[in-house]
């Protein structure tokens, strides 16, 4: 016998993305995708708040034993910036410049390449798993081609972090799938 008074099963929540057209801006922890002939998994997600409703998202990604950070950023168009963290002391004299002057030089020579200051941005940083944010200053340096990037984060008066990597079009990321 049918029961007209039976409660309907609750509908599962709708995903935040179109399952037929998942984009790099839809990434969340647990998603997987292909880049540089490897499959990567998003293992952490971060948000930068630069003020004036301007946000940047960064993902900690892993492929086997390799770990990178992928920042999704929009200027004239959408880009993916893949970086790897390195010891800050590898900057040599530039590291000393940051620590002594609390600002960045206009150029940095690093491993045979000259990087030019593109922009300095103060803002707030947080893990998307946490409500609390901390202040950060970020300096982006680009080489002559605009393809290679050197990023400095300042977390505290004497706490700096170095990342280097490449700027890529979003088309290099493919086969995005949720877990």
Helix content: under 10%
| Principal-axes shape call | globular
Tell me what portion of residues adopts beta-strand conformation: over 45%
Number of β-strand runs: 11
Count up the helices.
1
Which structural class do the helices and strands define? mainly beta
Over all CA atoms, what is the radius of gyration? Answer: 20 Å
Q: Biggest sheet, open or closed, and with what strands and sense?
A: 8 strands, antiparallel, barrel
Order of helices and strands: EEEEEHEEEEEE
Amino-to-carboxy terminus distance = 39 Å
Low-confidence stretches: none
* Overall residue-averaged pLDDT value: 93
- The largest beta-sheet arranges its strands as 2-3-4-5-10-9-8-7
Number of domains: 1
Give me the secondary-structure topology:
Blueprint: E1 32-35, E2 38-49, E3 55-63, E4 66-74, E5 78-86, H1 93-101, E6 107-110, E7 113-127, E8 134-142, E9 148-156, E10 159-169, E11 174-177
Antiparallel strand pairs: 1-2, 1-11, 2-3, 2-7, 3-4, 4-5, 5-10, 6-7, 7-8, 8-9, 9-10
List its traits.
globular, 11 strands, eight-stranded antiparallel beta barrel, single chain, 1 helix, 179 residues, mainly beta
């Amino acid at each position: 016998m049918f029961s007209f008074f039976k409660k309907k099963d609750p509908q599962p929540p709708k995903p935040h993305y179109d399952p037929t057209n998942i984009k790099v801006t839809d990434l969340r922890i647990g998603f997987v995708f292909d880049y540089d002939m490897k499959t990567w998994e998003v293992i952490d997600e971060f948000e930068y708040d630069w003020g004036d409703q301007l946000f940047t998202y960064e993902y900690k990604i892993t492929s086997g034993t390799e770990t990178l950070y992928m920042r999704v950023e929009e200027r004239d168009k959408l880009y993916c910036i893949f970086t790897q963290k390195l010891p800050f002391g590898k900057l040599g004299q530039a590291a000393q410049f940051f620590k002594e002057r609390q600002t960045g030089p206009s150029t940095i020579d690093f491993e045979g390449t000259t990087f030019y200051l593109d922009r300095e941005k103060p803002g707030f940083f947080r893990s998307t798993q946490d409500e609390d944010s901390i202040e950060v200053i970020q300096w982006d340096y680009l080489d002559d081609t605009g393809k290679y990037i050197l990023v400095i984060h300042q977390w505290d008066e004497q706490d700096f972090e170095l990342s280097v990597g490449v700027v890529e079009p979003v088309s290099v990321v493919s086969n995005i799938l949720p877990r």
